[in-house]
Amino acid sequence: MAATVTFVSEPGGEKRIEVAPGESVMKAAMGAGIPIFHDCGGLARCTTCRVRVVEGEVAPRGEDEAEIARMLSFGDDIRLACQIRPDGDLRVERMMRQEFRRDRGAEPDPGARSEERQLAVLFCDVNGFTEFAARKMPYDVVHVVNRLFLRIGDAVLGNDGFIDKYLGDGLLALWGIEGGEPRELVLNAVRAALLMQHTVRELGAHLSSHFAGDLSLRVGIHFGPAIIGRIGHPARQQLTVIGDTVNVASRVETQNKELRTNLLVTEECMDQVRDLVIVGDDFKTVLRGHERPRRLYEITGLVQPDPVFLVQRQIYRVMVDGHRFVDRFYRRLFERAPELRSLFEATSMPRQHEMFLNQLAWTVRELRNLPSLLENLAELGARHRAYGVCREHFTPAAAALLDALAETLGAEFDVESRAAWTQAIQSLAAAMQAEPRDGNKT
Question: What's the pTM?
Fold first, then answer.
């Protein structure tokens, strides 16, 4: 027989609902249009659905609810609506309510909930940046920070990561907000961290003569459960992450300073990628705010870098000397295919250099997600055909690109790197020679 639950102190007066046998008060309330919060989805993982039992008998708390009540010192009358399955009539009062809106705009759904995910969480911070910034002009500091974030952000985005937020001279990045295999999530986070460190060293070497300061990164990575949800004012909400996994990653990053390392990961990360990474050292230490010791591992590289990683690592060196690299490319191209020179007679070459560099950098960044690039590359190829580029021109262009890379990278452009770039260039050339999906032909 259905029980009757009366919600007191509701706008417009009391509201009575029927609760079927075995049904929770939370589910019945939602079905009746009572805006009851349930951020964890009714799993006794939060207290947003809490109610005060004003009248009536309720069965004793289950194990999960009892643990929450103990931690938060709830009285016997404070219960979780998701855990109450009444046998008799009750009178209850919602404890968590949506405040009245005082501005215009869409009202958020009070029932919209966060979700728990298994995440790889990365924190990074620039070594000695406070001292660096104190000796520089503010506009110069902004210039350097933006160039840093461009490189660091590319490393995250190019390895399927999500930039959660910027934190002064560092950032918080996540892998797994849309799910994924733990091994690949952690591996992508490690790839991104190694790329970050490499590109910051490259950029630091380029900027040191102008700003007199070495730049390097401290990075910490942890893997575990965390809550993903939208935080902030309803008109300016942003996706973010909360939980002890985030706190641990932050503590691991700061531990680099004490241990004189640059990239540390936890045991939980190593469980996923132990056979894929090169370990410099390992440490047993107690993180700030924790009681039990944790083992941390210093990562210095990948056992077998994949072709995309190699290409992404080297593009930053190319971009630092970008216009000289493009000069080399076009010189080699016109040597191999002189007939192409006429296609650029009316072209502003400085503008062409900039477009070429931007396209190359963007494409390399997105190589790990090549299927998403195919339509854009097909459209790019169609535009080239409209300019007079033929299928046979791709062969000298690919060779000229490899020549320019070899000249720019020097000894770093070894056999393995050449093979990686060749594979990438062949994939891009094939995509550019395909027809766009809309069927436009030129």
Answer: 0.81
